[in-house]
Write a structure and sequence with these properties.
- The complex is a heterodimer of chains A (340) and B (423).
- Chain A is built from 14 helices and no strands.
- Chain A is mainly alpha-helical.
- Chain A has one domain: ABC transporter involved in vitamin B12 uptake, BtuC, CATH 1.10.3470.10.
- In chain A, helix 4 packs antiparallel against helix 5.
- The longest helix of chain A is centred in the N-terminal third of the chain and has 35 residues.
- The two termini of chain A are 16 Å apart.
- In chain A, 50% of the residues are buried.
- With 423 residues, chain B is an alpha/beta fold.
- Chain B is 36% helix and 25% strand.
- Chain B is built from 15 helices and 18 strands.
- In chain B, helix 12 packs across helix 13 and helix 13 runs parallel beside helix 14.
- Chain B is elongated and about 95 Å long.
- Classes of the chains: A mainly alpha (340), B alpha/beta (423).
Chain lengths: 340, 423
């Protein structure tokens, strides 16, 4: 396996690809604004470039498209990194934030705010706060349910996660049933969408993504050890129980933040680390940064597709990721099965 | 030098006490085998010694230091553990896997140094896995995986290496290679291994700690610990020890004792010249309380009797059976419920055996077993032998096959027991 790709090269290349994808995301859209003009508008924010464009063009680029593209990248990065971490923790390439019920819990919290209008006073923070609270609450319930003495076996954790997730999603459906005139808004949000989210959402999500990624990267050696089981990791000198708590809280915070911004976007968290692992191997010191970049690229492109495919209508981005992700995932599984 | 001292270890799962006061020392330079039945708490003990489980009471000390006062990282520099069946779902290359053993020496963001690579290289070399280093761990055979897991443990540079059934699921050659490897490693560190195979343990372990009902039944060199009486008590099997022609050590063969040995009748077998081997094996296997003799030293039947742990009357090699021995035989036969006479060539040396059998009181059942179903040609002393055989046949029962013998004994035993209860 000396042919394994050099991690640094991969990261540099992916950074370039991400930049290109984001530029494409900014340039392409319903109102036609040329590439150079778009670049000039962006450049004018930190360079003295004379404005030869209309006020509305500037708004479209700076206040609508740019935050949206950045948001797509952040959400993709967040989901992919959380997926990579959970897959290692659970020694299961099928694990992701949804399996633990975090996403569904966060979604229930967010729907509660959207339907009942509680917390209107806190403005745009209402939905994310509820999503965090419910995401954390969910992982706490799952953790306590799964706890045997002071250990939490992974299998019970996964099973409890599935049970609690089902309960949470039933709660969300119930709210949908009651919601009446808000139905369309909630459904659209649940299906996953980042349209119409401005800079305030970017600022909301950014600290979580950065903080989470740094944390996860810093424990990548522990994650490598955890892939071979908790007992084995403990024997290698890792304080497994405390490490596990940190990971679960961090994952639910990052996931809660992502869900509150974009609703439930499936398959990115599951498929990105999976693909990356097939490509560069399972070493988390490379897997985490590469998954982060790859997830960001995927979601920026998916967002672009959601705007372009049925233009002028927009598809919820969650539909795009599921439509592309599920068959691709099946293909990966088949191929893997034949190789083994 | 003693590396691990465990004192008065107690542990319970819920209300079930698994370990009740274990004292165990583990020394440098030896392979310490932990043995015991399934569920006797071997793995639990190993996990407590390794600091993964916390004992309810008692203490574990490494070089005088209390284990409970150490953090995971410190423990990982002292001991390495090869657990059972590591599920490797991910295609992690062997070299990277072995490098994981350096985890307790590396800082959070620190990169591996030349020193770490050298240690990994050595660990691969010692376990003969250098050629595997680029293979993913998920595609190794059982024997290869076991070696690679040991290599990872070695790269922790431990003072103690602990292994939970390192030879399970391996074929015989790989089992022996792993045990050989552990023997080599024990020159540099203490090795503790849970071993199931008694013969493997007897051959490769310096000391054996036998766990039974939550306590250490016995602990010491295999020759002292693995004796038939102990094996029977701890594992519930009859063990027969024989000399291994290859190594000069002992090897065991095992059989499951009959269901109700206590109620079985006493059978005395008169045999010789190897004619009685199968009978002795069959009777011992069925759980009869067997005795044998008189047999000359050097007689194959005597060796078999000793192998089967059957008490036997014996006479010096190549000598005639004397008056006194004949008297002893008579007494033994009187105590038996049944006497089995195996058809054998008879000469001056062993004629006394037949004389005693022919003159037993009428209430002692005698069975004559002759696999050829004939008594011709056994007499080597002009008619005296034939006469005695005829007498025995007339007063007793003749069995020509082992099955027949078994049936006759079963019925005779029943009769005897019925009489016992009747009186």
């Amino acid at each position: 396996m000396h042919t394994r790709l050099n991690g640094r090269h991969v990261i540099v290349i992916l950074c370039l690809v991400l930049a290109a994808a984001m530029l494409l995301g900014v340039v392409v859209g319903e109102s036609r604004i040329s590439f150079t003009r778009a670049m000039a508008i962006i450049g004018s924010t930190f360079l003295p470039i004379p404005a030869d464009w209309s006020q509305s063009e500037e708004s479209i680029i700076l206040l609508i498209r740019l935050p949206r593209v950045i948001l797509a990248a952040l959400v993709g990065a967040a989901l992919a990194v959380c997926g990579a971490v959970l897959q290692s923790l659970f020694r299961n390439p099928m694990a992701d934030p949804f399996l633990l019920g975090i996403s569904n819990g966060a979604a229930l919290g967010a729907s509660l705010v959207l339907v009942t209008g509680v917390g209107v006073g806190v403005g745009i923070l209402g939905v994310p706060l509820a999503a965090f609270a419910f995401g954390l609450g969910t992982i706490y319930i799952v953790y306590e349910l799964a706890r045997v003495g002071n250990r939490v076996p992974v299998t019970t954790l996964l099973l409890c996660g599935i049970a609690v997730a089902a309960f949470m999603s039933a709660g969300t459906s119930f709210l949908l049933f009651l919601s009446g005139e808000n139905l369309h808004q909630i459904v659209f949000w649940l299906l996953g969408g980042i349209s119409g989210r401005g800079w305030d959402y970017v600022l909301l999500l950014l600290p979580f993504v950065i903080g989470g990624s740094v944390l996860f990267f810093s424990i990548s050696r522990s994650l490598n050890a955890l892939m071979f089981g908790e007992e084995s990791a403990q024997y290698l000198g890792i304080e497994v129980e405390s490490q596990k708590k940190i990971i679960l809280v961090a994952v639910s915070l990052v996931t809660g933040a992502a869900v509150s911004v974009s609703g439930i976007i499936g398959f990115v968290g599951l498929i990105t680390p999976h693909m990356v692992r097939l490509w560069i191997g399972p070493d988390h010191r490379i897997l985490i940064p590469v998954s982060l970049l790859f997830g960001a690229i995927l979601l920026v492109l998916a967002d672009l597709a959601s705007r372009v495919l049925l233009a002028p209508n927009e598809l919820p981005i969650g539909i795009i990721t599921a439509l592309c992700g599920a068959p691709f995932f099946a293909y990966l599984l088949r191929r893997r099965g034949r190789e083994a | 030098m003693t590396i691990i001292e465990a004192r008065d270890i107690g542990f319970s799962f819920g209300r079930k006490a698994v370990l009740k006061g274990i004292d165990l020392d583990c020394r440098d330079g030896e392979v310490l085998g932990i043995m015991g039945q399934n569920g006797s708490g071997k793995t639990t003990l190993l996990r407590i010694l390794a600091g993964y489980l916390q004992a309810d009471r008692g203490s574990v000390r490494y070089g005088g230091r209390e284990l409970s006062g150490m953090d995971a990282r410190e423990m990982a520099r002292l001991r390495a553990v090869v657990s059972q069946g590591v599920g490797a779902n991910f295609d992690f290359p062997v070299a990277d896997y072995v490098m994981l053993g350096r985890t307790p020496y590396l800082s959070r963001f620190g990169r591996e140094r030349v020193h770490d690579y050298r240690i990994v290289e050595q660990a691969l070399g010692m376990t003969d896995t250098t050629h595997l280093q680029d293979r993913p761990v998920s595609r190794l055979s059982g024997g290869e995986l076991q070696r690679v897991m040991i290599a990872r443990a070695l790269s922790q540079e431990p003072k103690v290496l602990m292994l939970d059934e390192p030879t399970s699921h391996l074929d015989i050659r790989h089992q022996m290679e792993i045990m050989d490897l552990l023997g080599d490693l024990s020159k540099q560190m203490a090795v503790i291994a849970i071993v199931h195979d008694l013969n493997l343990a007897a051959r490769y372990c310096g000391r054996i700690a036998l766990l039974h009902e939550g306590t250490i039944h016995s602990c010491g060199p295999p020759g002292q610990v693995l004796v038939p009486a102990t094996i029977r008590e701890v594992f519930g099997v009859r063990a027969c020890r024989a000399e291994d022609p290859g190594t000069g050590g002992g090897i065991f063969s095992f059989s499951i004792p009959g269901p109700d040995t206590a109620g079985k009748s006493r059978v005395h077998v008169i045999c010789g010249g190897g004619c009685g081997r199968v009978v002795l094996h069959m009777l011992a296997g069925k759980g009869y309380r067997v005795s044998a003799g008189i047999l000359n030293e050097g007689d194959m039947d005597l060796e078999v009797a000793r192998y089967l742990d059957i008490p036997a009357l014996s006479a010096p090699a190549f000598s005639r059976i004397g008056e006194e021995q004949a008297r002893l035989l008579g007494e033994t036969c009187l105590e038996a419920d049944v006497v089995v006479v195996v058809a054998m060539p008879v000469g001056e040396g062993n004629i006394r055996n037949l004389e005693v059998a022919a003159n037993l009181p009428a209430d002692i059942p005698v069975v004559l077993y002759s696999p050829e179903c004939t008594l011709d040609g056994l007499d080597c002393i002009n008619g005296k032998g034939d006469l005695l055989y005829e007498q025995i046949q007339n007063r007793g029962t003749l069995a020509c096959t082992l099955e027949e013998l078994a049936v006759v004994l079963e019925n005779t035993g029943d009769v005897t027991r019925r009489e016992d209860t009747g009186s």
